[in-house]
Amino acid sequence: MKRHLVFGAMLTVTLTLAGCGSVDPALVQRPAGVAAFEGDPVELAAAGEELWNDTSLGTAGVSCASCHLGGAQFKESFKQPYPHRVAMAKSMSDLESINGEQMVQFCMIVPMKGEPLAWDSQELAALTAYVEIEQGNFAAK
Questions:
Q1: What SS3 class is residue 35?
Q2: pLDDT tens per residue, range 74-132
Q3: Domain 41-139 carries which CATH code?
Q4: Taking a C-beta distance cutoff of 8 angstroms, is the pair 138, 71 a contact?
Q5: pLDDT(49) > 80
Q6: Chain centre to alpha carbon of residue 10
Q7: Rounded to whole angstroms, how far apart are CA atoms 61 and 54?
Q8: N or C, which end of the chain has less CB nearby within 10 Å?
Q9: Taking the mean position of all CA atoms in its chain, how far away is CA 72?
Q10: Of 105, 92, 93, which is closest to residue 36 (Cα–Cα)?
Q11: Cα separations (Å) of 103 from 48, 52, 110, 135?
Q12: Rounded CA separation 53/31 (Å)
């Protein structure tokens, strides 16, 4: 499946989700015994916002914001607190339910065509914190 995202007259991003194959659920599930990075929530969210706009995280040349600018591409289920069902994760990895950090990892692998972030990394904690802010903003609409 191809998704064409148009941002103004100058930028069109095409993501091809078909052909990505299935995603091994183990890639998006926190390994036992690996603790999450802990830091100041405000600082993590600020760092997460920078990462949200970083096109160098994967090889596809897109950032989180490329797909989700202004809440684009979020489904109604995004208004529900995590964990919840996400159709893309269900169809590509058979996960019935996914949490915020798992969704970050899933997006790193599929649309961004990158590697999952280290489970104990500040980057994963920061992006997850910022996703929660985006979720709150979307739910308030």
A1: coil
A2: 888 899 989 999 998 999 998 999 999 999 999 999 999 999 999 999 999 999 999 99
A3: 1.10.760.10
A4: yes
A5: yes
A6: 24
A7: 9
A8: C
A9: 13
A10: 105
A11: 14, 13, 10, 12
A12: 27
Whether the Cβ atoms of residue 134 and residue 68 lie closer than 8 Å to each other:
yes
DSSP 13: E
Contact 83, 97 (CB under 8 A): yes
Q: 59: closest CA among 2, 126, 108, 10? A: 108
Residue with tokens 């915020």: 100
Q: What are phi and psi of 64, to 5 degrees?
A: -55, -45
Cis peptide before 83 (omega within 30 of 0): yes
Classify residue 6 by burial, with Cβ atoms within 10 Å: 0-12, 13-18, 19+.
exposed
